Structure to design on (395 residues):
């Protein structure tokens, strides 16, 4: 393919990607990511916590050829998921908060189907029969690194990819292909107008802004651009399989799935474009479920309520664990009966966190429930939690 043909094909691919509903499209060369060293240092520090899959496939993340041996280019794509403002219940302690990205249908499948369409378009144009590699968040690929290389945006201090004019409310996807294309076809990014005495930069950056670092409820950022996932509310409510550390529970507020705080305060997200594509329509009605309803979910009810959404990833035991923490943070006695029922839940993880929540709420009803549960509890970890919660409830 000569230079003119390559340029034409590259432009046509980006145009077709936009026609599929992606907000940003760019091309990066199929070479190792520039931030791979930082990623391995992050792993070595243990900041990935229980996400062992990141370390297990770390070497593959160092070269896209590990996913597609003939990798020559990566078509990087961003689809915005910002929706309307959360409902009023968002700030009610009797309701939980679900991160914005989970307000719509699970993005993995709806985006991957469009990557397949894009690959079919490229194969027709290039005369290729072998499939490209479609990646939506689950492949061992440093998507943000390649998205930055492709000109979609820059990586901010909160470790999110920020696309000026679109913000960081975006899903990222990649299509790895054997065609050697022209890189850097995204439009030039606008600069950031920094608040309160900041200066306009010729290149989009975070400037001197540290709002995301300062706002994190659990102080999860050990340094700019470095997140200790073990303290991140998104990690705690989704990735962590066991008990949430007791010292972090009071800092989690009413988040029950994910967290948006470091994005909510970002100046680039002041006026992001709302997602308008029908295949990624967010439903704000899903944003703030009643804690009492979550605490009452059995396995069938959990699957029925969250079928087709990313919330399924937390599993019932994880979501109810999170709802118990939010209920404890509410300190609302109206949730005591629902928590008392959970002291007999089949899952020790749920029983232990229900006990903690009752200890936070306190009162005679909570103390009676804790004392009654202690007489029949056989799990040592839960028994210890019941004793500590009873002491807290009686204080």
């Amino acid at each position: 393919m000569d230079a003119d043909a390559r340029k034409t094909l590259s432009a046509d691919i980006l145009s077709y990607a936009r026609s599929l509903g992606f907000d940003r499209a760019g091309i990066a060369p199929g070479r190792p990511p520039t931030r791979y060293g930082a990623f391995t240092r992050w792993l070595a520090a243990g900041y990935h916590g229980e996400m062992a899959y990141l370390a297990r496939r770390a070497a593959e993340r160092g070269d896209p050829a590990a996913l597609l041996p003939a990798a020559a280019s990566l078509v990087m794509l961003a689809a915005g998921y910002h929706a309307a403002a959360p409902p009023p219940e968002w700030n009610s302690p009797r309701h939980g908060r679900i991160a914005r990205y989970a307000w719509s249908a699970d993005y993995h499948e709806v985006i991957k189907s469009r990557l397949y369409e894009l690959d079919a378009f490229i194969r027709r144009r290039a005369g290729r029969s072998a499939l490209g590699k479609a990646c939506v968040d689950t492949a061992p690929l440093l998507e943000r690194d390649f998205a930055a290389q492709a000109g979609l945006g820059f990586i901010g201090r909160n470790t999110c990819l920020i696309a000026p004019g679109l913000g960081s409310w975006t899903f990222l996807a990649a299509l790895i292909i054997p065609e050697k294309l022209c890189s850097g076809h995204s439009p030039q990014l606008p600069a950031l107008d920094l608040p309160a005495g900041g200066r306009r930069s010729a290149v989009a950056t975070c400037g001197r802004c540290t709002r995301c670092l300062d706002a994190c409820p659990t102080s999860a950022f050990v340094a700019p651009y470095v997140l200790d996932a073990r303290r991140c509310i998104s990690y705690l409510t989704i990735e962590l399989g066991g008990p949430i550390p007791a010292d972090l529970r009071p800092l989690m507020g009413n988040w029950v799935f994910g967290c948006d705080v470091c994005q909510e305060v970002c100046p680039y997200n002041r006026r992001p474009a709302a997602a308008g594509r029908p295949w990624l329509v967010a439903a704000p009605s899903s944003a703030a479920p009643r804690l009492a309803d979550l605490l009452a979910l059995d396995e069938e009810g959990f699957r029925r309520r969250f079928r087709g959404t990313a919330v399924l990833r937390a599993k019932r035991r994880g979501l109810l664990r999170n709802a118990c923490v939010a209920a404890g943070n509410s300190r609302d006695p109206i949730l005591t009966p629902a928590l008392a029922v959970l002291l007999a839940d089949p899952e020790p993880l749920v029983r232990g966190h229900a006990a903690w929540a009752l200890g936070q709420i306190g009162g005679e009803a909570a103390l009676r429930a804790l004392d009654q549960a202690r007489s029949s509890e056989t799990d040592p970890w839960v028994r210890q939690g019941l004793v500590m919660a009873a002491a807290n409830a009686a204080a």
Q: What stands out?
A: The domain at 291-395 is CATH 1.25.10.10 (Leucine-rich Repeat Variant). Confidence is low (pLDDT under 50) at residues 187-202. The two ends are 76 Å apart (CA to CA).
